[in-house]
Amino acid sequence: MSLVIKDLHANIDETPILKGVNLEIPKGEVHAIMGPNGSGKSTLSKIIAGHDDYDVKSGTVTMGGVNLLEMDVDERSRAGVFLAFQYPAEVPGVSNANFIRAALQARMPDGEELDAVAYYKNLYSKMDVLEMDRKFTSRAVNEGFSGGEKKRNEILQMMMLEPKCCILDETDSGLDIDALKIVAKGVNAMRSEERGFLVITHYQRLLDYIQPDHVHVMSDGQIVKSGGKELALELEESGYDFLKEGELVNS
Amino acid sequence: MMTMTTPAWFAELQEAAQAEYESLPMPTRKIESWRFGNIKQLDFEGFTPEDQTNITLSIPDLPEGVICMPFEEALEKHSDLLQQYFMRNTPRLGSEKFAALHKANVKGGLFLYVPDDVVVETPIEVNHSLSGSNKISFPHTLIITGKNAEVSVLDRFGSANNEDAGLCIAVNDLIAGEGSRLTYCALQEVNLTSRFIQINETTVERGATAKAFTLNTGAQWARNESLSKLNGEGGHSDMLSCSIPSGTQQFDQRTFQHHAAPHTNSDLLYKNSLHENAKTVFSGLILVDEDAHYTDAYQTCRNLMMNDTAEANSMPGLEINADQVKCSHGSTSATISDEEIFYLRARGIPPHKARRLIALGFSAQAVDKIGNEVLESAAFEAIERKFATL
Predict the structure, then answer these.
(1) CB–CB of B358 and A93 under 8 A?
(2) The whole model's pTM is what?
(3) Which CATH code for domain A3-90+163-244?
(4) How many structural domains does chain B have?
């Protein structure tokens, strides 16, 4: 399903963070957003997911024509939005397997129970792709996980929930090259004509493994430049200095 | 029908206990052991001892030499063992008067003796059902493990129906002999009109490991007093509890970790998840005797406040008279963090289910430490039964 963001303005504690974001991610495409710290990339991802720390002032976010901003966080998820968090929360006492199971159960009609055998079979096959040890099923969600393990766990959830629109917020941060390749493998396995991806990253490196169709540069709460995947390479080479020089080209 | 002959020593003991009960004053909130407590719950006016006990024992095939039978039968057949172990080290944590009342009226329960080197694989299960209105039951659990023996017991407390107001004053003696492993799990799920007092005494000899877990989900008011006395080097005691009060339920917990020998280890974890207008009191003391060097003692009480109308009172305490000890005590009260809720909701889990999942997980953490699959799943099921009502 296509994700369409139109003229989105949002504040946190009265401070404007997003100042008119326009972005369209047609289904089947992978879009990357790059940009310096504080440009509003993570804020954008959290607003799409429905975090209430932010105050949306104006604009729309729609998925398949449905206004996401009018939906609760959990409703958005069930509708097909998925955010892979930069810093996933730890949930002591709740096992990973029970957590993912509850998330899948929440998508079932009332009175229907998830088939436990099929669930574990599916879970294990996805964990194999991500080279995750089976012990992660019984461990508490993200508790005591290394940075890399947390990120893999995010991708595992994404693979299990099969969302329509996936947002990856700096999934590459804190990953070594081997972990990065594994995470990319999981993401690439999910690419399909029906699914859109928004990949937020600081580094071009991730985009070597998850090849984007489009790259956008975000600065001071706006998308200031868009291009093909070669734009990421340019940024890697020359950095964001062009932003200071005022060469804002909105293509 | 079996005819009972009460041994003379026991008749004398009961007579003395009755006199003790009558002479001991009623507790008041002014004494430390009843601070924050609800004294009104101690009014037993109109209550009479139950006419017959409603207890069933599920005893698996047992290895030779194991004695496992109802309390009364043991009184007749193994009077010597009972005389040696029955209520010898009853804690003095506030309910001395009610311990005396129990002693004078004890009826029904389990007597279990596992001889040296004998391992009982399957847990022994005891089912108590409170029945009749305004009735008091006085069940007793006495477990003795010999050298290197091993046994586990599941003690269930329920009610025959949801209406009858019952009162249960239960006492346990858990005596873990040298090198033995004794695991005890009590699940208190009596109806919401009943009251419950449980007094637990655990004695841990050299190299033994005792684990005692108590779950409280039922009763309008429950008071748990638990003592673990570490008598021999290498002794280890786990004191575990999980309470899930809701509505106007009140649970009052008093604990005492007594290290009487060096190189002993105790670990206390009490987890309370409080819903609606529930109230809990936790008061714990670690005492390390003068000679009990190299003691490791930990005491943790965690309260999860599910509603801001709930109230948790915690009074952790330490008294250390030896050197080279590692002790910690702590108590926390917290609500579920917004971050955790958001994370679960961001995966599609509705808010009320997200809160329930987290609270259930919080409670389950004490269960995970029991270390016995059968007992753990029985405890989990009881927790789930409670959450299904919330």
Answers:
(1) yes
(2) 0.87
(3) 3.40.50.300
(4) 1
